[in-house]
Amino acid sequence: MQTDEIIKYCLSKNKTYIDYPFGDIPICFKVNNKLFAQLYPLEEDHKITLKCNILLAELYRKQYEGTVIKGYHCPPIQAPYFNTIYINKIDKNVLMEMFDHSYDVVVKSFPKKIQKEILGEKNE
Hints:
Elements: H1 3-11, E1 16-19, E2 27-31, E3 34-40, E4 47-51, H2 54-63, E5 68-70, E6 82-86, H3 92-108, H4 112-119
Antiparallel strand pairs: 1-2, 2-3, 3-4, 4-6, 5-6
């Protein structure tokens, strides 16, 4: 996937926006002030770090050894919950599933009322 495709896909998620808390790179995607993706758009180091359920994160690392690694820049306590994926080495559909999962993990971390607001559902 190209950088512009990734940006467009991530921004297609409800209430998602771009932030630059660390400078120009990485391009960070957040929902309700919580990070779900960090894109490194450099051609020679094209990768993305995504939030992940710890068990699924381990499965991805085993299944895509060398292509999916622990969040390389994360503090040790957070690293198991993030995967860094080398974009040019993985199938586009698998990568999009990983984006979806990352977004869902973050949205589900909020109280139900906030989840409904983010997803555009009516509160009853």
